[in-house]
Specification:
The chain is of the alpha/beta class and 281 residues long. 32% of the residues lie in helices and 22% in strands. The strands form three sheets. It has a six-stranded antiparallel beta sheet.
């Protein structure tokens, strides 16, 4: 109904013309039920489709008039993460489930059809409000960095050590976010297949820089030292790897692999490695 859309736009524009807003979260966190229409000549089966066309019309008017505002849509359970809405809202809240372990599957699966730059991913409080899991700040941060990093918790409840770790995570992400959001994303270990591990890597288009993440959910008795393989590197180039001495060939990293130096003791562990092309061999 055009009069409804016009009324919504009038109310929103009255606010946006008066207040310096640069970000809006557009949320619709419920199912559409008992859908019907009494409009003359309208068919009930058309209502959902016409609703979406109406929403796109509203968004077209808003983003045209306010190009400086970043609109983020809400997926909730995945229901509003579609290419149509991404045209107007380039960022989507990937899921209301913010548990770091659950997010491994959620973000891995979402990456199959949506760009990393569109995925909202936040560090949330522990115990997690849905799973009651107590994942480490390290793992929560490393998972959230594989998307648009944010924090969704009460910072006044954090210890000084946790606040410092948060600052370091934010600083690290700012340094590497261009690589995460616009680099080439390669999936290495699927959490759906391994049930306990996940790994992926972001590689720059020039293949001169990469960011590798490895995640392990639960510890096991008598685990062997973990060897990891890389993808997307230039086999003819040599790389430095954070935490390791010397340089390693891209072909060696992708085919022979590298043993993780971290002990990875306990549950909910993660490793982040920064790779850079070596200037000399």
């Amino acid at each position: 109904r055009k009069e409804v859309r016009d009324n919504i736009l009038a109310q929103m524009m009255a606010i946006l013309d008066d207040v310096p807003v640069d970000y809006i979260k557009w949320d619709y966190n419920r199912n559409m039920t008992e859908i019907g229409t009494a409009a003359p000549g309208a068919l009930p089966g058309e209502v959902l489709h016409k609703y979406m066309l109406g929403l796109y019309e509203v968004m077209e008017a808003l983003v045209t008039k306010y190009p400086q505002i970043l609109f983020e849509s809400c997926s909730g359970g995945g229901g509003r993460f579609d290419p149509g809405i991404l045209y107007y809202m380039p960022q989507t809240w990937t899921s209301d489930n913010t548990d770091a372990v659950a997010r491994l599957e959620i973000q891995y699966g979402t990456s199959l059809v949506m760009p990393i730059s569109s995925m909202g991913s936040h560090v949330s409080a522990i115990p997690n409000h849905q799973t009651h899991r107590k994942a480490s700040m390290k793992m929560r941060g490393d998972v959230a960095m594989a998307g648009n990093l944010g924090y969704e918790l009460d910072v006044t409840t954090l210890s000084e050590a946790e606040k410092q770790e948060m600052k370091e995570q934010i600083s690290f992400y700012k340094e590497h976010r261009k690589l995460v959001q616009y680099g080439v994303f390669h999936r290495i270990l699927s959490p759906f297949e391994t049930q306990n591990e996940a790994a992926w890597i972001f590689v720059s288009p020039e293949q001169d820089e990469a960011l590798y993440f490895y995640y392990r959910v639960l510890d096991r008795a008598n685990l062997k030292k973990k060897k990891v393989l890389f993808k997307g590197l230039d086999s003819a180039k040599y790389y430095t790897v954070s935490g390791y001495e010397g340089v390693i060939g891209g072909d060696e990293l992708m085919n022979r692999g590298l043993y993780l130096k971290d002990a990875l003791q306990g549950d909910y562990q993660s490793v982040c490695l920064v790779l850079k092309e070596a200037q000399s061999v």
